[in-house]
Design brief:
heterodimer; A: about 110 residues; mainly beta; 5-stranded antiparallel beta sheet; B: about 110 residues; 7-stranded mixed beta sheet; 4-stranded antiparallel beta sheet; about 60% strand; globular
């Protein structure tokens, strides 16, 4: 079945440093979504990428979708304490609305 | 818009008891998902509905779990009988076909 792998599992960075998390799917995806979950909270939708090679930006966050539509990345420039949380990618195949989540990358910011 | 509403927020029950979790999706959303989250297994998709019809329940762990969506504004996830290994946070999420799902605040279930 469809699997979505995400690395790294944990990341500690100094405030102001950059951060990147990577997502890989075992199958070609119709789209990829990114979510953020704060400690004790629920996942919150950030963005969806649909097109091969697509790049989208939200302030300090840059999202990329691979040419083969099997991988994606989220890059945060100059991290801030408000970026703390777990970032999930979630992939959807071509057949249905089901989205499969990666295990997430937990970002911890060192002051 | 009140978002996706789940109840209860917390549930503590004894092993063997029946547990019912409730979800009210956002009006107009045609897809509804139930997820379970644990530290060990992450976010697991249990079942999802499209237009109130169960489409894929392959993630339901076993026959003790059942889910219903009698109408567009309500869904339940039932565990009977509950076991300690069912302890987790259960999320309901809704959306419009395959675009950015909205999660509820979750139900933290503890089975003792």
């Amino acid at each position: 079945g469809q699997q979505v792998m995400q690395i790294p599992q944990y990341q500690h960075v100094q405030e102001g440093e950059d951060f990147t998390t990577y997502c890989n799917s075992s199958t070609t995806l119709s789209n990829i979504q990114w979510y953020k979950q704060r400690p004790g909270g629920h996942p919150v939708f950030l963005i969806q990428l649909v097109k091969s090679g697509e790049v989208k930006k939200q302030k300090r966050l840059t999202f990329q979708f691979g040419e083969a539509k099997k991988n994606s990345s989220l890059h945060i420039t100059a991290t801030q304490t408000t970026d703390v949380g777990t970032y999930f990618c979630a992939g959807s195949g071509n057949r249905d609305d089901k989205i499969i989540f990666g295990k997430g990358t937990r970002l911890h910011i060192l002051p | 818009d009140a978002g996706v509403i789940q109840s209860p927020r917390h549930e503590v029950t004894e092993m063997g008891q029946e547990v019912t979790l409730r979800c009210k999706p956002i009006s107009g959303h045609n897809s509804l998902f139930w997820y379970r989250q644990t530290m060990m297994r992450g976010l697991e998709l249990l079942i999802y509905f499209n237009n109130n019809v169960p489409i894929d329940d392959s993630g339901m762990p076993e026959d003790r779990f059942s889910a219903k969506m009698p109408n567009a504004s309500f869904s339940t996830l039932k565990i009977q009988p509950s076991e300690p290994r069912d302890s987790a946070v259960y999320f309901c999420a809704s959306g419009v076909s395959n675009y950015g799902y909205t999660f509820g605040s979750g139900t933290r279930l503890t089975v003792v």
